Amino acid sequence: MVDAPERSVSDADEEIMRATYRALREHGYADLTIKRIAAEYGKSTAAIHYHYETKDDLLAAFLEYILDRFVAAIHDVETTDPERRLDLLLDKLLVDAEDHYDLLVAMLEMRSQAPYKEAFGERFRRNDEYVRYLLRTVIDDGIAEGVFADADAERVASALMTIVDGARTRAAVLEDPTELAAARRVTDEYVTATLLADES
Amino acid sequence: MVDAPERSVSDADEEIMRATYRALREHGYADLTIKRIAAEYGKSTAAIHYHYETKDDLLAAFLEYILDRFVAAIHDVETTDPERRLDLLLDKLLVDAEDHYDLLVAMLEMRSQAPYKEAFGERFRRNDEYVRYLLRTVIDDGIAEGVFADADAERVASALMTIVDGARTRAAVLEDPTELAAARRVTDEYVTATLLADES
DNA sequence: AGCTTCTTACTAACCGATCAATCAATTCCG
DNA sequence: CGGAATTGATTGATCGGTTAGTAAGAAGCT
């Protein structure tokens, strides 16, 4: 009953995910090897294989882990006021990414492998649908409350996500984090033009 | 004088570029090996190394080759009417990409390696600046001719490129080519709202 | 004692790159 | 003109290195 330390059964798993995270930021996805993950883990490569049969299994688990963290981060936007909530969501999607440039690059690498790794594609699509759902919902709420003009919430959400992904890709590829802040202003312009175009 | 065949000095180079292009579309950048390029080339791997010292050299040459083709394609937009020219440029950037999905994916892979391969980053930045110059110029021309409303051409061009890159990333990652056409409509909306907002 | 966890040592496959050797075409020279 | 020398292009074999994954047994915990 002395479960005080409460090192849960999958305690090692959590540490391996963290080690993978560090190795990924340090070496990038293309140069992410089991050896390097093991080095961060502080144990042998075989120890990794004890917990995860194949590298693919580990990577799939890691993608689950990292996207769950992302969802958790975006989930703590609790404001219900539609205009404020949309602002905060876009901040999470664009502004917060500035502090994690290495991760931004690595995630772009992983995303570029989606067409070749079905597990990746599936998980990225699911995440995409979740974000789209959040955006569509807040927009629809705003329309229902009358603070947003009548608009096609689905299309507006898609447009915003395209801008978000464009900014992330450009920030990573051009090694220019200011792309994110610039895109944040574009989303504001877009929101103002399409959702706040009141003819009062 | 009988230079009829005219197999130019760098004839082999051209064929290797084409072989690389085929191998890239077929296997993707991550799985692009000299062996696979040689297979497409129809000769041995050593034959590749005879023409290009290292794999990096070959890849740098290929990126030059493929981006030169892109520039050539975008260059044949000769219309001078600003509104029409902007439309055609955006068509080249978004609509035409639909026919080359495999290349779209591979180019995203290569772009994601820009932070690790300075030669890539440099070349991608140069290409980016060229596209930005084209867009800025056509917008400034339109403003000068009075067909576009007064606007910050640099910022509008950046916004359009963010949308373009977002659509390309999403089309590749989500394996959904319709993202491109959808983004094309967003650019139209954006152009209408920022450049054609005449209060006649 | 017995189960979980881990290490050491290993394999098989693949990678980019290098090597000497070969062949065909071209150039040089008497 | 014609043989000799040179050059460009290519092959097959191989090298050193790295990869993911495996096998067998030791350590440690309960």
Automatic annotation (TrEMBL), chains A, B:
Q: Does the keyword Transcription regulation apply?
A: yes
Q: Which GO terms describe its molecular function?
A: DNA-binding transcription factor activity; transcription cis-regulatory region binding
Q: Which domain of life is it from?
A: Archaea
As given in the record, the signal peptide range reads: none
Q: Which InterPro entries match?
A: BetI_C (IPR039538), Homeodomain-like_sf (IPR009057), HTH-type_TetR-like_transc_reg (IPR050109), HTH_TetR (IPR001647), Tet_transcr_reg_TetR-rel_C_sf (IPR036271)
Q: What is the lineage of its organism?
A: Archaea, Methanobacteriati, Methanobacteriota, Stenosarchaea group, Halobacteria
Query: What organism is the protein native to?
Result: Halorubrum cibi
SUPFAM superfamilies named among the record's database cross-references? Homeodomain-like (SSF46689), Tetracyclin repressor-like, C-terminal domain (SSF48498)
The record's DNA-binding region positions are 33-52
Q: Which Pfam families match?
A: TetR_C_6, TetR_N
Q: Where is the HTH tetR-type domain positioned along the sequence?
A: 10-70
Task: Write out the coiled-coil annotation as residue ranges.
Answer: none
What is the protein named? Transcriptional regulator, TetR family
Task: Answer yes or no on keyword Transcription.
Answer: yes
Keyword tags = DNA-binding, Repressor, Transcription, Transcription regulation
